[in-house]
Design brief:
mainly alpha, 217 residues, 9 helices, MetI-like fold
Length: 217
Protein backbone atom coordinates (compact mmCIF):
# COMPACT_ATOMS: atom_id res chain seq x y z
CA UNK A 1 0.00 0.00 0.00
CA UNK A 2 2.81 2.41 0.84
CA UNK A 3 4.39 1.66 -2.53
CA UNK A 4 1.11 2.49 -4.26
CA UNK A 5 0.82 5.79 -2.37
CA UNK A 6 4.43 6.63 -3.23
CA UNK A 7 3.80 6.00 -6.94
CA UNK A 8 0.72 8.21 -6.81
CA UNK A 9 2.78 10.92 -5.11
CA UNK A 10 5.38 10.75 -7.87
CA UNK A 11 2.63 11.04 -10.50
CA UNK A 12 1.25 14.25 -9.02
CA UNK A 13 4.64 15.72 -8.09
CA UNK A 14 4.31 18.42 -10.83
CA UNK A 15 1.28 19.63 -8.87
CA UNK A 16 3.62 20.22 -5.90
CA UNK A 17 6.04 22.10 -8.13
CA UNK A 18 3.22 24.45 -9.13
CA UNK A 19 2.49 24.98 -5.45
CA UNK A 20 6.18 25.64 -4.83
CA UNK A 21 6.19 28.19 -7.65
CA UNK A 22 3.17 29.97 -6.14
CA UNK A 23 4.83 29.96 -2.71
CA UNK A 24 8.04 31.34 -4.20
CA UNK A 25 6.13 34.04 -6.09
CA UNK A 26 4.24 35.15 -2.98
CA UNK A 27 7.44 35.08 -0.93
CA UNK A 28 9.49 37.04 -3.49
CA UNK A 29 6.92 39.80 -3.97
CA UNK A 30 6.22 39.97 -0.25
CA UNK A 31 9.89 40.21 0.73
CA UNK A 32 10.44 43.16 -1.60
CA UNK A 33 7.28 44.93 -0.42
CA UNK A 34 7.91 44.20 3.26
CA UNK A 35 11.50 45.41 3.03
CA UNK A 36 10.57 48.72 1.38
CA UNK A 37 7.69 49.41 3.76
CA UNK A 38 9.63 48.16 6.76
CA UNK A 39 12.60 50.44 6.08
CA UNK A 40 10.36 53.49 5.58
CA UNK A 41 8.39 52.77 8.75
CA UNK A 42 11.56 51.93 10.67
CA UNK A 43 13.18 55.24 9.75
CA UNK A 44 10.11 57.17 10.90
CA UNK A 45 9.83 54.94 13.98
CA UNK A 46 13.34 55.97 15.03
CA UNK A 47 12.77 59.66 14.22
CA UNK A 48 11.98 62.62 16.46
CA UNK A 49 8.32 63.03 15.53
CA UNK A 50 6.54 61.69 18.63
CA UNK A 51 3.09 61.57 17.04
CA UNK A 52 4.36 59.59 14.04
CA UNK A 53 6.31 57.25 16.32
CA UNK A 54 3.18 56.72 18.39
CA UNK A 55 1.00 55.94 15.35
CA UNK A 56 3.57 53.51 13.92
CA UNK A 57 3.99 51.97 17.38
CA UNK A 58 0.26 51.22 17.56
CA UNK A 59 0.35 49.69 14.08
CA UNK A 60 3.36 47.52 14.93
CA UNK A 61 1.92 46.43 18.28
CA UNK A 62 -1.42 45.48 16.72
CA UNK A 63 0.15 43.49 13.89
CA UNK A 64 2.66 41.73 16.12
CA UNK A 65 0.05 41.09 18.80
CA UNK A 66 -2.60 39.43 16.62
CA UNK A 67 -2.46 36.08 14.80
CA UNK A 68 -1.55 36.30 11.13
CA UNK A 69 -4.53 34.14 10.19
CA UNK A 70 -6.88 36.68 11.81
CA UNK A 71 -5.30 39.47 9.76
CA UNK A 72 -5.85 37.44 6.58
CA UNK A 73 -9.49 36.83 7.48
CA UNK A 74 -10.04 40.55 8.09
CA UNK A 75 -8.57 41.44 4.69
CA UNK A 76 -10.30 38.68 2.72
CA UNK A 77 -13.69 38.41 4.46
CA UNK A 78 -14.28 41.69 6.36
CA UNK A 79 -12.96 44.33 3.95
CA UNK A 80 -15.46 43.28 1.21
CA UNK A 81 -18.24 44.34 3.61
CA UNK A 82 -16.69 47.83 3.49
CA UNK A 83 -16.52 47.82 -0.31
CA UNK A 84 -12.95 46.55 -0.79
CA UNK A 85 -13.12 43.22 -2.60
CA UNK A 86 -9.82 41.41 -3.18
CA UNK A 87 -9.11 38.09 -4.84
CA UNK A 88 -7.19 35.51 -2.85
CA UNK A 89 -3.76 36.25 -4.35
CA UNK A 90 -3.70 40.06 -3.86
CA UNK A 91 -5.30 39.60 -0.44
CA UNK A 92 -2.46 37.25 0.49
CA UNK A 93 0.14 39.75 -0.73
CA UNK A 94 -1.50 42.60 1.21
CA UNK A 95 -1.64 40.52 4.38
CA UNK A 96 2.00 39.50 4.01
CA UNK A 97 3.01 43.14 3.41
CA UNK A 98 1.21 44.34 6.51
CA UNK A 99 2.56 41.60 8.73
CA UNK A 100 6.12 41.54 7.42
CA UNK A 101 6.58 45.31 7.36
CA UNK A 102 5.70 45.54 11.06
CA UNK A 103 8.44 43.10 12.05
CA UNK A 104 11.01 44.60 9.68
CA UNK A 105 10.12 48.07 10.96
CA UNK A 106 11.23 47.08 14.46
CA UNK A 107 14.45 45.55 13.14
CA UNK A 108 15.30 48.69 11.19
CA UNK A 109 14.35 51.04 14.02
CA UNK A 110 16.46 49.03 16.44
CA UNK A 111 19.43 49.16 14.08
CA UNK A 112 19.17 52.92 13.60
CA UNK A 113 18.72 53.55 17.32
CA UNK A 114 21.88 51.54 18.00
CA UNK A 115 23.98 54.21 16.25
CA UNK A 116 25.60 56.59 18.71
CA UNK A 117 24.15 60.11 18.81
CA UNK A 118 27.60 61.47 18.02
CA UNK A 119 27.32 60.06 14.51
CA UNK A 120 24.16 62.09 13.94
CA UNK A 121 25.84 65.21 15.30
CA UNK A 122 28.93 64.70 13.14
CA UNK A 123 26.78 64.19 10.03
CA UNK A 124 24.70 67.28 10.80
CA UNK A 125 27.79 69.40 11.43
CA UNK A 126 29.07 68.38 8.00
CA UNK A 127 26.14 70.20 6.43
CA UNK A 128 24.30 67.09 5.29
CA UNK A 129 20.52 67.10 5.00
CA UNK A 130 18.52 64.60 7.03
CA UNK A 131 18.10 62.33 4.01
CA UNK A 132 21.84 62.50 3.31
CA UNK A 133 22.63 61.77 6.96
CA UNK A 134 20.52 58.64 6.81
CA UNK A 135 21.71 57.52 3.38
CA UNK A 136 25.42 58.26 3.73
CA UNK A 137 26.17 57.91 7.44
CA UNK A 138 23.52 56.31 9.64
CA UNK A 139 21.93 53.51 7.59
CA UNK A 140 25.25 52.09 6.26
CA UNK A 141 26.46 51.71 9.85
CA UNK A 142 23.09 50.40 11.06
CA UNK A 143 23.11 47.68 8.40
CA UNK A 144 25.66 45.75 10.47
CA UNK A 145 22.95 45.39 13.09
CA UNK A 146 19.99 45.13 10.73
CA UNK A 147 21.10 42.55 8.15
CA UNK A 148 21.45 39.33 10.22
CA UNK A 149 18.00 39.50 11.90
CA UNK A 150 16.51 40.81 8.66
CA UNK A 151 17.57 37.69 6.77
CA UNK A 152 16.25 35.57 9.63
CA UNK A 153 12.93 37.40 9.33
CA UNK A 154 12.88 36.58 5.63
CA UNK A 155 12.97 32.88 6.51
CA UNK A 156 10.00 33.34 8.85
CA UNK A 157 8.09 35.22 6.16
CA UNK A 158 8.64 32.41 3.67
CA UNK A 159 7.23 29.92 6.17
CA UNK A 160 4.31 32.24 6.92
CA UNK A 161 3.20 31.96 3.30
CA UNK A 162 1.70 28.62 4.35
CA UNK A 163 -1.01 30.48 6.27
CA UNK A 164 -2.47 32.05 3.11
CA UNK A 165 -3.75 28.60 2.17
CA UNK A 166 -6.74 29.29 4.47
CA UNK A 167 -8.21 31.65 1.86
CA UNK A 168 -7.72 29.24 -1.02
CA UNK A 169 -4.39 30.32 -2.49
CA UNK A 170 -3.02 27.19 -4.15
CA UNK A 171 0.45 27.42 -2.61
CA UNK A 172 2.49 24.55 -1.24
CA UNK A 173 0.55 23.88 1.96
CA UNK A 174 -2.77 24.03 0.14
CA UNK A 175 -1.46 21.52 -2.38
CA UNK A 176 -0.56 19.26 0.53
CA UNK A 177 -4.09 19.39 1.96
CA UNK A 178 -5.64 18.70 -1.43
CA UNK A 179 -3.27 15.77 -1.98
CA UNK A 180 -4.05 14.19 1.40
CA UNK A 181 -7.64 13.77 0.24
CA UNK A 182 -6.39 11.60 -2.64
CA UNK A 183 -3.48 9.98 -0.84
CA UNK A 184 -4.46 9.35 2.80
CA UNK A 185 -0.86 9.11 3.98
CA UNK A 186 -0.33 12.45 5.69
CA UNK A 187 3.22 11.81 6.88
CA UNK A 188 4.43 11.07 3.36
CA UNK A 189 2.62 14.02 1.79
CA UNK A 190 3.61 16.64 4.32
CA UNK A 191 7.15 15.34 4.54
CA UNK A 192 7.38 16.28 0.87
CA UNK A 193 5.77 19.66 1.60
CA UNK A 194 8.28 20.26 4.40
CA UNK A 195 11.20 19.26 2.20
CA UNK A 196 10.11 21.71 -0.51
CA UNK A 197 9.76 24.54 2.01
CA UNK A 198 13.20 23.63 3.33
CA UNK A 199 14.65 23.83 -0.18
CA UNK A 200 13.78 27.52 -0.45
CA UNK A 201 14.38 28.44 3.20
CA UNK A 202 17.71 26.74 3.82
CA UNK A 203 19.77 29.01 1.51
CA UNK A 204 18.51 31.98 3.52
CA UNK A 205 19.36 30.21 6.78
CA UNK A 206 22.91 29.69 5.51
CA UNK A 207 23.04 33.33 4.43
CA UNK A 208 21.83 34.46 7.85
CA UNK A 209 24.49 32.37 9.63
CA UNK A 210 27.18 33.68 7.30
CA UNK A 211 26.16 37.30 7.82
CA UNK A 212 26.07 36.89 11.59
CA UNK A 213 29.65 35.62 11.51
CA UNK A 214 30.69 38.29 9.00
CA UNK A 215 29.14 41.17 10.92
CA UNK A 216 30.63 39.96 14.21
CA UNK A 217 34.17 40.38 12.89
Amino acid sequence: MMGFYFERLIEIFPFFLKGLWMTSKIAFISLITCTLLGFILGIFRSGNNKILRWIIGIYVSFVRGTPFVVQIFIIFFILPEWGLQLDAFPAALLAMAIMGSAFICEIVAGGINSIHKGQWEAAASSGLTLIQQLRLVIVPQAMRVIVPPLVGQYVLLIKDTSVVSVIGVMELTRVGWVTVVRIPEGLMVFSLVGALYFSISYPLILLSNYLERKMAI
